[in-house]
Automatic annotation (TrEMBL), chains A, B:
Gene3D superfamilies: CBS-domain, MgtE N-terminal domain-like, SLC41 divalent cation transporters, integral membrane domain. Acts as a magnesium transporter. It is a multi-pass membrane protein. Keywords: CBS domain, Cell membrane, Magnesium, Membrane, Metal-binding, Transmembrane, Transmembrane helix, Transport. Homodimer. Belongs to the SLC41A transporter family. It comes from Vreelandella subterranea. This is Magnesium transporter MgtE. It is found in: Cell membrane; Membrane. InterPro entries: CBS_dom, CBS_dom_sf, Mg_transptr_MgtE_intracell_dom, MgtE_N_sf, MgtE_transporter, SLC41_membr_dom, SLC41_membr_dom_sf.
């Protein structure tokens, strides 16, 4: 079973009660903590640090755990909290924790430390570790290099199966995964891969070179993490090897990290879809000032974009003054167009993100949208027509119904095409957000509605 | 390296050219196909079946592959296409393919077959296989049972490490993963788990019962697939064991299937976020009629919801008639409120989906939203005020600025709270879609704007 929030809260309270006592019983601590997963302890710590900012208690809990477990738990905390913990630990213990952490997490945390602390810790590290850490920490955020780990099992070309097995047994404790092995030549270039499963069923005397898969799926170290996650998902990989310009193996991205990337990329797209900039942390934790900045930019831009709607209205002021009843249907019409358009845009943006839709499908999809949006428009026109009659008579009903079809159709096509246009100009299609699309449709809707009204009502 | 679209298209064309010839060189086929991954062949087939509907060619390609490979490739096709293929194959070959497929994929495909075919195939199956298939096919769509596989490695309690190793070697070819092992008692109840890694470093004579992890993370067979994916992600699992009511092991959900579920659940939420119903297939493939149905429901509902905006306008008709200039700012104000509200709603909905936000955080988040939305409203009011002066003098500017702050603040709080209210009443928070939120805010915005206008302008 896995723990739910209630269970976690219960354990947390119990631990805090114990901590409250003059002589807390650390044995009990150790026992309770040994019963739950590192991920869950991580959540408890995160609560303590973020919600209750009871850092001291958090550290006390961490202190009860073995260094290895503590490092594990630390790995589950968001960067900011990791920083707080490490920031309040003596170098020696901090160092121990860092050494036990996965090399990828270690590098991420390291990048958050301030210059002095970094230097202080580096000085105390073994040369090899220091170099590895510096290297991992040097890769750009959001690339394969930034999410890969260097804890993989490398097999030297020319080894026998039994030698490889030995190697696996030796590295088992440290490696992130021992289930996918990578064969390197003398230059450290990746020339093959094999699963532990293959190795186990192979003849002990056989050469790994003869049983390895030679055409390896790998990715360059500067590949965007979003694409890395896609490759892992597409080929159902346990881990994806990462190579440098000389096709030397520099690390692997494991399936669990790929899954985390996929989730955070999806979250980013959700936010982009509402014109919210990228948030480094959860909405409940990110600083208010950041949240404001990430939301305000587009909102203000769209205020000015909205002026086009105003301009349109100003242009038709006489028509409106003559038939104030028309205003009754304004929000309804532009709102409906905006909704249909936002739907069309989202279908395309998500389709592109999942690889279900490509630029080459544009023509086909346009045709489909024409049919669907047309039917939608007609349906909605039929729904609104009777109200038109009630409010302003048949002439107005005619205007409203006609406008509905036109606006919904136009809005849907606009929303559907925008992502492709953006993609064409190398802009992230997700920029075709609901707010942007609806604002554009508001303006066009105003013009369409009042043009039709002017034409029909003045001719009537 | 992994193939990009161009590379795939090139190979596809080459293969089609060859197929076009009177005496296609199947040897060349086999060679070219042996060079690319099953996932990629799957994509080529999918193209042939869906885009070009060249089913014959698709079958010809499949025919070149070994049954095992063919089954693999088939697994990468969407259900509808799998059906087309199987539907056009003789029972004997279809049966071979089904047998080679993963038990979970087999069950899914089986559920798509029509009654007669199902019976025909079942009759030709070995008893054990038939029962297993019937069982897997019986679980409800969208639950753990529907995505799990029964190809796992089970170890009997009481076995020694070396016996377990032997068992692993035997099952290696068939099992989805041999890297996580499950220890069962005589009743078939899951009493422990261990990784192959643990097994490899353990003493051959040791009893598995002494090295296994006793507190196993597992999930009931009727658990929603979305939650299953979350557990796999949270605990970085290779596979999650699925148990029945008597805690007997009935299957496992592997990390790659969990990742697929996470992606399709995210897509579903993207669509829900725009009031689009759940699509069984990609937007480029789903039937037009379905696409229409999934989009029209909410669109029409919202047309009527939009009448409230109209009603509001009707109520203030005199104010409007007296000051037609006010209409100029109507789309701008309600649009801005809608955008801010949609942002707030999306931040909450996604936060809940990723587990970053819980109902318990409501109070804290409300406070945060008050501050952020307030600042946003003031910023946008400052942006719009000058235009107010230009269009209708200082009085109008005052009305517009005041309305902007109120509408943005109110809209944001509405958008932020709605998901919590829905959650409270056991409705999917994602129902708080941008279209719904903006429509609600349109109506309230109209009332707020014209109330302020009536108050200030008549008193002026």
């Amino acid at each position: 079973m896995s723990l739910n929030d209630e269970a976690l809260q219960a354990i947390k309270t119990e631990l805090l009660d114990e901590l409250g006592k003059d002589a807390p019983n650390t044995a009990l601590f150790a026992e309770r903590l040994s019963e739950i997963r590192s991920a869950d302890i991580g959540e408890i710590l995160e609560d303590l640090i973020e919600e209750d900012d009871a850092l001291a208690e958090a550290l006390a809990l961490l202190d009860v755990l073995s260094t290895e477990r503590a490092a594990n738990v630390l790995g589950y905390l968001p960067g900011e909290s990791q920083l707080e913990v490490i920031g309040n630990l003596p170098d020696t213990y901090a160092l121990k924790l860092l050494e036990e952490m996965g090399s990828d997490e270690r590098a991420d945390l390291f990048n958050l430390l301030d210059e002095d602390r970094r230097e202080a810790l580096l000085r105390r590290m073994a040369h090899r570790e220091r170099e590895d850490l510096k290297r991992l920490a040097s890769y750009e955020e959001g690339t394969a290099g930034a999410i890969m780990t260097s804890d993989y099992v490398a097999i030297a070309s020319g080894m026998t199966v039994s030698q490889a097995m030995m190697r696996v047994r030796q590295t088992a404790p440290d490696a992130e995964t021992v289930y996918q092995l990578y064969v390197l030549d003398s230059e450290g270039q990746l020339i093959g891969t094999m699963s532990l499963r293959q190795l186990m069923v192979a003849r002990p005397g056989a050469l790994v070179d003869n049983i390895m898969i030679k055409d390896v799926i790998s990715t360059p170290v500067d590949k965007e993490q979003e694409d890395v996650a896609k490759i892992v998902a597409r080929y159902d990989l346990l881990a994806l090897p990462v190579i440098d310009a000389d096709s030397r193996l520099v690390g692997i991205v494991t399936h669990d990290d790929a899954m985390d990337v996929a989730e955070s990329e999806a979250t980013e797209d959700f936010h982009k879809g509402m014109s919210i900039g990228q948030l480094e942390d959860g909405v409940s934790r990110v600083p208010l000032w950041t949240l404001y900045r990430k939301r305000v930019t587009w909102l203000v831009l769209l205020v000015f974009a909205n002026l086009f709607s105003g301009a349109g209205i100003a242009y038709f002021e006489d028509t409106i003054a003559a038939q104030v009843a028309l205003v009754f249907f304004l929000p309804l019409l532009i709102g409906s167009g905006g909704n249909a358009g936002a739907q069309a845009a989202t279908l395309m943006v998500r389709g592109m993100a999942t690889g279900d839709v490509g630029v080459k499908d544009w023509g086909k999809l346009l045709g489909r949208e024409l049919l669907v949006a047309g039917s939608l428009g007609i349906t909605m026109a039929i729904a609104v027509a009777p109200i038109g009659v009630m409010r302003g008579g048949e002439a107005v009903a005619m205007v409203v119904a006609l406008s509905m079809v036109t606006i919904v159709l136009f809005g849907s096509l606009l929303g559907m095409c925008l992502p492709f246009v953006l993609e064409r100009f190398r802009v992230d299609p997700a920029t075709a957000s609901a707010p942007l699309v609806t604002t554009l449709i508001d303006a066009s809707g105003v013009v369409i509605y009042f043009s039709i009204a002017t034409a029909l009502l003045t001719s009537v």
